[in-house]
Amino acid sequence: MSEMTIGIMILVGSFALMLIMGVEIAYALGLSAVFTCMYMGIDLLVVFQSIFNKMANYSLLAVPCFMLMGEFMSIGSMSSNIVGLANVLVGWMPGGLAMVNVVDSMFFGGVSGSSVADVSSLGPIVIKLMKDSGYDEDFSVALTCTSSIQGIIIPPSHNLVIYAVTAGGVSVAALYMGGYLSGILLGLCLAVYCFFVAKKRHYPRAEKFTIKNFLRALWLALPALGAMLVVVGSVLLGWMTATEAAAAACIYTFIFTFVVEKAGTVKDIYVAFSRTIRTIGSVLILAACATAFSWVITYLRIPQMVTAGLFAITTNKYVMLLIINVILLIMGCFMNMVSIVYIMTPILLPIVTSFGMHPVTFGIMMIMNLGIGLLTPPVGQVLFVGSSISGLSVERLTKALLPQMAFMVIALILITLIPSVTLWLPTVLGYI
Length: 432
Hints:
Elements: H1 3-20, H2 25-40, H3 44-55, H4 62-75, H5 78-90, H6 96-112, H7 115-132, H8 137-147, H9 158-167, H10 172-201, H11 211-236, H12 242-260, H13 266-299, H14 302-313, H15 317-334, H16 337-354, H17 359-373, H18 381-390, H19 394-417, H20 420-428
């Protein structure tokens, strides 16, 4: 047995063993990489240098800024005003509040870029509205969770920034523009599901649409929409990088919440920074360990082996895409999104680009897959947040999520098979 084969066995075996033992995934990734390097006689300084080079990337500074911006938004009235605007726009439709749930997540995703922030801040508001109007609790909570996945696809999305850093050479602006139509497509698929469920269960409609109500709701929601314009507009116009735009939007939401609205206290500021620091700390530790794991994977030539193995199974583009999607869906059930992006991007990106898929399309396809993973046990973060804010058991909520996830898979298939969904807008705007 060759040294490379034994190295692969040590890497994969030690990682799997530590996961079974309950070791945190970040430490399992890092330790398995260290064990393999020790056996192979690789100087660990080389691995640490790779980690430093990857983590010192300027674009990663956007991630904590987006997280902090979401914390500031949840303190003031921005979240409730977004719900109010969505209610005026689509509340008059059959199953109006269900449509509101989908649309307000679309708006909030365009401001915070976080599914967890969406469920945490908008969830308690819209779930209560739906329950008070006669909607089933299981349906209401499940829809809040599934619609929140738009937040990691519609810009600003820190997950797309992480993918861009990992892939190398992929424009963040192109990913942002590709994310718009993809996120809207996901919302439309969920809206179709809501329409049929509302008709079947005779869910009520909200008040009729009027220009007066729309203008009032739009006026109240302008500050929240302004945050989206600060991020996306400044990037598109070339005024700022994604990192600078994230910092500017963070300052914008801070000023509006604490100075204009006077909605928070010094304690709220402390709590917002504390939550962000804890979250970004865990993300960066995970990213560093995943980078070491990814470096060892590349050293052991695992990407080439996986490529050869997949092409040995099939050379058909569509069968290959189906296999890759299934792999990502399964991994999303058991691993953190950031670690999967760092590990699988260097493995799968060369495969998909070899038969013509654009890195922008693959990035959005990957994030959509992993977004579905956020809704699945045993590590689905959005699933557990939804269970926490609603009081529903994880088992009960998972059962309610299944039919909605089927419509999410439809959106995923369309994104995978129709490149124009992700490439049309960035191409028109000159980012591709």
